[in-house]
Structures are given as C-alpha cells and as structure tokens.
Amino acid sequence: MTTLSGTGPRRVRRATMSDVARLAGVSIKTVSRVVNDEPGVHQATAERVLAAIDQLGFRRNLSARNLRRGSSAGIVGLVMEDVANPFYSELTGAVEEVARQHGRHVLAASSGEDPDRERELALEFCARRVDGLIVVPAGVQHGYLVPEMRAGTPAVFVDRPAGDVVADTVLVDNIGGTVAAVQHLARYGHRRIAFLGDAPDIFTAAERLRGFREGCARAGVRYDEDLVAMGPHDAPGIGATLRRLLRGPEPATALVTGNNRITVLVLRALAGQRDRPALVGFDDFELADLVNPPVTVIAHDVAALGRTAAELLFARLDGDGAPPRRVVLPVRLVTRGSGEVPA
Amino acid sequence: MTTLSGTGPRRVRRATMSDVARLAGVSIKTVSRVVNDEPGVHQATAERVLAAIDQLGFRRNLSARNLRRGSSAGIVGLVMEDVANPFYSELTGAVEEVARQHGRHVLAASSGEDPDRERELALEFCARRVDGLIVVPAGVQHGYLVPEMRAGTPAVFVDRPAGDVVADTVLVDNIGGTVAAVQHLARYGHRRIAFLGDAPDIFTAAERLRGFREGCARAGVRYDEDLVAMGPHDAPGIGATLRRLLRGPEPATALVTGNNRITVLVLRALAGQRDRPALVGFDDFELADLVNPPVTVIAHDVAALGRTAAELLFARLDGDGAPPRRVVLPVRLVTRGSGEVPA
DNA sequence: TCCGGGCATGACAACGTTGTCCGGGACCGG
DNA sequence: CCGGTCCCGGACAACGTTGTCATGCCCGGA
Fold first, then answer.
1. Rounded to 5 degrees, what angle do the CA atoms A77, A263, B92 make?
2. Between A and B, how many CB-CB pairs are < 8 A?
3. pLDDT at residue A340, rounded to an integer
4. Pairing assessment for the beta strands B165-166 and B105-110 based on DSSP bridges
5. Nearest CA-CA distance, residue A224 and chain B, Å
6. Interface test with B, best of A150, A262, A320 (most B CBs within 10 A)
7. If residue B303 lies in a helix (H) or strand (E), which one and from where to where?
8. Residue B229 bridge partners (DSSP)
9. Looking at the predicted structure, is the pLDDT value of residue B10 above 50?
10. pLDDT tier, B8 (very low <50, low <70, confident <90, very high otherwise)
11. Are B186 and B221 in contact (CB under 8 A)?
12. Per residue, what are the HEC states of B167-181?
C-alpha cells in the first residue's frame, strides 16, 4: 500500500530519454529504439534500458513524439452546449466509441450555447492540432473555421447546420417530426394544439416550429400564434405559460414540446393536475414510458447522430474528398398513450 | 457562403511561423513576438505579420509551444465507466466547470468497467502529459499510477477508492445511505426487505450491501440472504429476480436498489402491476418524482462529487503537499411517498 | 592479411515554438 | 561629429522525441 500525495520528492521533473540514457549508459537513440520496439538492440542493452526506465518511472512524452513525427495528435475535439446534458452525453458516448475504433480520444467541451465561447473552444482545439472537430453549432457564423478546415482540420456539424459554411452536417428530420406530432394529435380530434419551443434563434427550435405550422396546415388545424410559446423557458416561466395556454374560451387541449428539457419542465409543472392535456414531446427520454400517463414522443437515435458524424469525420481524415454531405436522420413517432387522449 | 470539405487544396501542410516569417519578410522571432503580443515590434511590421498570418491561416501549434515552455498541457484526464451514463456526465460537467475556471480542458474516456482499459487510458493520458487525472476506479490495483504520481501527475479518485494506493479520494456515504433506507422502510412496518445491488466486486455495491446489513441490524429486521440479489443485472434477469423475491410464504414487501440503473430496471419490470412493493433507490434520477408512485431515493450531489475532486486536484497542482485526503460526501433520504406504503 | 558485410550503437538534425542574447540603426545631447 | 541609449529585429539554442546516416566491431572468405 503506497501513500501518495504531493508529499515525497517535491514535484520532480519528469524523466526524459536523456535521463534514462545516462542511467543506462547508452545513447538517447538507443533508448528510443527500446521504447519503440525497434530491432537492432542487443538484449542485454535493452534490459539495462528497461531497468533504467523502470527505476526513473520514465514515460515517453507523446506531445514531443507527435511533434517530431508529424503524426496526428490522436484527439478529436467535440464542442457542444453542455456535456452534462444526457442528450449530449449520449452523443459523446457514440463519438467516443467510433473514435476509439480509430485509435483516438475525445476532447469535449461545453459552449453553453454561447457562439463566442464555441468559437474560442473550436479554435483552441485547432491550435492543439486535434485531428478533427465535431461541433454542435451555437451560433450562425462559422467562417472562422474556414482557414482551419483549409489547413486540414476537418469539421463536421451535428444537430444543427453551420451558419455560413457548407460542410459535412448531420441533422435529424425536425420538420417531419413535428408534422407527424401534429397529425397524430389531430387524428385524435385535437383542434387546439399548442407548441412550446426553445429559443427561436436555435436552428432546431425554428425548424420544429416550421414543422408545427406545416403540420397544422396539413392536418387542417388552425395555426394560432397565441398557442405558440418559444423559449428560453425555465420552471417558473413554464407554469405561467401553461396557465395562459390552458385557460380561456378556447384553451389548448394538446401540447407539442420542442425538446426533452421542455417536456420535463411541462411534466413537472402539470404534475398532480387532474387531467393533463395530450402531449407529444420532441426527443425521447428515459422513463418517458413510466411517467403517468406515459409520454408520446418524437424519438430519434442520438447515438446514430454521434456515430454518423464521427464516421463522416474519419472518412475525411482517411482522405475522402467528396463534396460536403448533409445527412438527415429519420425520426419516429413513439406513441405511448398520452396522445390518444381525445380532445 | 464557403463550401468546404476535403476538396480544394489537398490537405495542405499547416503554415508555421517560418512560413509566416518568409511571407512577411521578417524573422521567425518577430512572428512569435506578434503572436504573443510581446512589445518591441514596430506597428508597421506587426501589421505585415498579421496580414501574412491571416493569408496563410496560421495558428500557432500549442503542443510545440507547451513543449518549449515546459508549461502544462492545459488538460486534465478523466477516466470513468461510461461517458454516456447521465450519472457520469453530470460528474464530467462539474469537473469541466472547475477545470474551466483554472483554464484547462477535460479529456474524458470510458473504461467500460474494465481495469485493463482503465490502466491503459490513464497511462496514455500521463504520456500525453495531462496536468492531472481524475479516476473512477474500475479495478482494485492502482500501483501503476505510483510512478506517474511521483513524477508529478496528481490523481484523485472519485466514487470509489483506489485499490492499493492511498491518495486523494472523494466518496459518498454509501453505508449511511443504505442504513437510512432500511430504517426508513422499517419505520413503516416493513420486515421483509430485499436488496438488489450491483456486482459485489464494485466498491460502492459492496459498501451499500454492508450498509443494508447494518441497517437491518439497527432496525431490528432479520437479514435474510435469500432477499439479496447482487448483479450484474439486466432487463430479463431482473424480472426473474423480482418474481423470486416477491413470491413465496414470506415475500419481500419492500425493495432497496443499489444504483440508478437498477432502480430503473426494477421500475420497468414492475410497471403495470397493481401494487408495487415499497421502493427506495440509491442515487436520485430525473423524473423520480414523476413516475407513479414517485420513488423515494437516497440522493447525493453528483456535481459536488466532481467539483470536490477537481478542486482537490487543482489544489495539488497549486502545490498543496498535505497528506492525502479522503472526503466523504453526505447523502440525503428524499422521501417521495413510495416508501411510506405500509407493509 | 585484407576486405566486405552485418550488427549494435551513436551523432546529429529536425519537428514548431520561445527564451536569451546580440547587432545595427535612429536619435539625442554635448 | 562622437558616444550613449533606445528600439527593432534576428541568430541561435533548447524543449523531448525520432529519422537519417555514420561509425566501430566482429566475422567469414579470399
């Protein structure tokens, strides 16, 4: 049992190949050969070197190695809104898995939906010479990435398209999803359907609103601006919003929520009420089937989103020079009963 | 609108200071001065340099910079079971936030509960010269980190202690939590309480089982081995396990689950049944208050876990040489009604 | 005895950057 | 006109590693 902390030899300089070489009485190059399993080292010499390595706790400096060899850093950068959000952590997990298959690690960071911070993070990752970037765009201007991409750092955008750059992008079918949601509710007789979306400057929020309008049109439901509440939303605000939507002579009888956080806010705000309005939420979430009543959702495969993005990225790294691709992943209406409440 | 992909100038070599210097007609050092905002460069010269930088899309190589300056990489490594698990992503978010305050990024990786992979990841991070490591241990042997820690890469263990190394560790009060859970259930008359825990070689699972036994002793409830089912669990298995526990002449009337995933498995397995046994789950989870009936949990502050670990780490990086600390964070029984079902 | 060849090892430069130090010109006062 | 100072700019080494090439040695064959 070894006790460790800052105590002991105070912050020793890390041993280098030089140190190992000196201790083993050989040249630096020989140490390098041993460390890299290169042939042409006498067994006895190699053993001396290994002993020295062990004694000094030497571990070769990968940064220096990569610098010298011009090899890749072995890291892909991932910039998104919030690493702590389960939606993004599932995305991260999928990216990590593909990266692992390609021998890379993932450097993930949260932009907090702030375009300046996103830019700062992405550019710093480039300065670290990450092999590539996967970005969930916060802003609408990504010209800053053009020099980086030209310089050989490919970027793939996920969940939202880049602002002013045509590049590889992976999206979900936002419009199709909300169209399906409205049609589903209309099929059960709902004529007063409200939409609670995220901030309208977020691409997905705007698209889903578009889909909502189109769904109304297709289903023959009157689109009423008073029944639309775009974010950002918080717990106190959502309560007031719901009261407004659900009162009056023509209250909403059904709700469509624009993402998983809003869905949860709504569920919590409506908890304990006698009868909840019908509800269809964009994004599936764990336990959607176990709340009472279960929540019908527009589900999509978040892992596939990350996987596809990572695969596009590695294709670029492997030299794929095709024109930029835009992949749109399908969504799927998962009915769980709550939508079937007739109006 | 710029179109980008692998097309265009095929994978150009990234511009270096040399290239910039040549284009601007100055020396490398002058470029360095401009890039680093060092004084002593004529304004006209600086502008020529900036123009060249812009034209070439130059961005200085941070690896080379850090190598030369001996400065830190600006990265802390985080090794845990699964980045996609919401529990760990909340942890990651907290670590990231503290890291950000200290000007660092987080390199996160999943060990998949495999000690070999954990070791491999941790050592590779050390080779990358991360500033420090935060590890959720998968195995029980961490002697491999001793040379690294001695060499100046501090490590902090989270959620579980290291196997054979005494180092900074942040835990939650596993025993106190399950003791409280059993006492809570006993108070409502339960005498047949079952425990569903994770694989017993996982530290937290073992501790929580210990707490369960101790809780039984303190509450005067007979501890019955037949009512204990340790994992790993999966969806099909948990159904069979529950049938076994809940049948017979002396069925369990209450359950204690050992972590959030098991809790959810149980909820799903029991969904739709007329009356669910009383349930207390270790770990809080989103929507625990919205399932029916709501789930009483042993809650702890996952973010605090990550924050504390990161703060310990940065204290070490700032030269804190005190003996290793072990911090145990409190847990809190959050009653939500389900435990109050009398036996 | 000499020589060619294979083997083990080492000297050196280079990756891209920054710190140290030095030189040369402009400018000033005497 | 001379010496000193200030300012701008550059040459060079170094960070820790690896690729290239050279060296010394031993061996067998002529």
1. 30
2. 253
3. 55
4. unpaired
5. 30
6. A150
7. helix B302-317
8. B196
9. no
10. very low
11. yes
12. CCEEEECHHHHHHHH
> Chain A partners of B7 at a C-beta cutoff of 8 Å?
321-323
Nucleotides of D under 7 A from a protein CB: 7-12, 14-20
- Distant-in-sequence, close-in-space partners of A37: CB < 8 Å, separation ≥ 6: none
Residue from B298, B296, B307 nearest B330 by CA:
B298
> Does A207 contact B at CB distance below 8 Å?
no
What average pLDDT does this structure show over A281-299? 89
Cβ pair B177, A36 in contact under 8 A = no
CA-nearest of B258, B158, B240 to B198 is B258
Q: Report DSSP state, residue B276.
A: P
The Cα B81–Cα A83 span in angstroms is 16
Q: Which residues of chain A neighbour B108 with C-beta distances below 8 Å?
A: 83, 92, 96, 106, 108
Rama region for B151: left / alpha / beta (φ>0; ψ in -120 to 50; rest): alpha
Strand pairing class (B254-257; B278-282): parallel
- Residues of B within 8 A of A323 (CB-CB) are 3, 5, 7
Residue among A87, A93, A118, A123 at smallest CA distance from A106: A93
Instruction: Give me the domains of chain A, ranges plus CATH numbers.
Output: 17-68 (1.10.260.40), 73-172+303-329 (3.40.50.2300), 174-299 (3.40.50.2300)
- Percent over 90 (pLDDT), chain B: 67
